[in-house]
């Protein structure tokens, strides 16, 4: 049973960094593979995001800051002028609908393949530890290559790439950026000893393993300001073969290391309010906390789109709730939750990743 009094908080305004949001519903970042192979957002993406502009905040899908950082085919980039122009159209569509947009910056690390990369680059990672389970490519499922271990010079260059991508996001008209340190991608890989086997100052101890993430966040803040910078983490998610075994020690240490910066928000993906660590995170993080309900990765999702779990997160101390697949299938999710209307189900087909308008921009609105 959803606590209706708590649920009404979703429709209250809230300040997030430099922004005043009309509600506390965030559209979570979701890769949909609708950019060009070179990472340029297509016009269809502008329509998709513009349809969902009633969200308090939209966090755009993961975009690579580097030619080496591509994960899967047709994901977006944020490192060249053509990509910036593509995102400019997206930002304009969101603003035309009265919305607000942060762009997520994500480097794939070991999650990548030369066939998915416009330059044919091998993926780079903390250590030469292969992604288990293989990876999707334009020619089918393939074994992931052994990644190249990053040198300290390459780490420094990647920090600069994140900062440059953040500046590019604002050039494109976005309101801010989210640094993606979750779900098994590069920054998350540095946190986990199963992937990070380095013996230098970026591996081993908790202090060393959080160092790269802290350097990236500090560089982004220096470039665009703390009020336009968010950070995403996923303490409980084991997607992409990642598992931070000492999460109860590491994540509080990470938050302590960046809390003085005054970030716009912390975004916890796959959040579990019943876990003691969630309460620790809430106590250690004084700023706005966005929490994304853990609905698992399989379809279908609950008929309420995760509303009940979102309300439980509000009761556990979250300030805003990020909904993913519920927003994917319901461009007017805010109004549907406000009025108690039924939700469109997520279509279970290949159009989740790649394709055209079908199951992307053709989900019906309440008034259609």
Structural description of this entry:
- By secondary structure, the protein is of the alpha/beta class.
- The protein has one domain: Aldolase class I (TIM Barrel), CATH 3.20.20.70.
- The protein is built from twelve helices and 15 strands.
- The protein has an eight-stranded parallel beta barrel with strand order 3-4-6-11-12-13-14-15, surrounded by four helices. Strands 1-2 form a two-stranded antiparallel ribbon.
- Helix 2 runs parallel beside helix 3 (81-96) and helix 4 (152-171) packs parallel to helix 7 (211-224).
- The longest helix has 20 residues, at 152-171.
- The radius of gyration is 19 Å and the shape is globular.
- It starts with a helix and ends in a 29-residue tail after the last helix.
- It comes from Glycomyces albidus.
- Residues 10-343 form the NADH:flavin oxidoreductase/NADH oxidase N-terminal domain.
- InterPro entries: Aldolase_TIM, OxRdtase_FMN_N, Oye-like.
């Amino acid at each position: 049973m959803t606590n209706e009094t708590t649920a009404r908080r979703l429709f209250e305004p809230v300040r997030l960094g430099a922004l005043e949001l009309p509600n506390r519903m965030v559209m979570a970042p979701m890769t949909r593979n609708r950019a060009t192979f070179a990472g340029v957002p297509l016009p269809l993406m502008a329509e998709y995001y513009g349809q969902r502009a009633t969200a308090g905040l939209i966090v755009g899908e993961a975009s690579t800051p580097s030619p080496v950082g591509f994960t899967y085919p047709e994901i977006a980039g944020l490192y060249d002028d053509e990509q910036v122009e593509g995102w400019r159209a997206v930002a304009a569509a969101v603003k035309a609908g009265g919305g607000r947009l942060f762009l997520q910056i994500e480097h794939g690390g070991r999650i990548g393949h030369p066939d998915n990369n416009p330059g044919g680059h091998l993926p780079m990672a903390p250590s030469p530890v292969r992604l288990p389970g293989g990876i999707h490519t334009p020619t089918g499922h393939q074994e992931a290559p052994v990644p190249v271990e990053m040198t300290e010079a390459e780490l420094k260059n990647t920090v600069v790439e994140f900062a440059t991508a953040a500046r590019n996001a604002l050039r494109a008209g976005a309101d801010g950026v989210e640094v993606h340190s979750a779900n098994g991608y590069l920054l998350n890989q540095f946190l986990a000893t199963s992937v990070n086997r380095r013996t230098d100052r970026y591996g081993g101890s908790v202090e060393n393993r959080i160092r790269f993430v802290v350097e990236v966040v500090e560089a982004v803040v220096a470039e665009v300001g703390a009020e336009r910078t968010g950070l995403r983490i996923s303490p409980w998610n084991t997607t992409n073969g990642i598992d931070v075994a000492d999460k109860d020690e590491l994540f509080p240490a990470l938050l302590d290391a960046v809390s003085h910066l005054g970030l716009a928000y912390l975004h916890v993906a796959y959040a579990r309010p019943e876990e003691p660590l969630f309460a620790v995170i809430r106590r250690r993080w004084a700023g706005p906390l966005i929490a994304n309900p853990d609905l698992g990765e399989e379809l279908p999702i609950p008929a309420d789109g995760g509303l009940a779990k979102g309300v439980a997160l509000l009761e556990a101390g979250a300030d805003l709730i990020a909904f993913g697949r519920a927003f994917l299938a319901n461009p007017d999710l805010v109004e549907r939750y406000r009025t108690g209307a039924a939700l469109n189900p997520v279509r279970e087909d290949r159009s989740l990743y790649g394709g055209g308008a079908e199951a992307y921009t053709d989900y019906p609105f309440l008034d259609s």
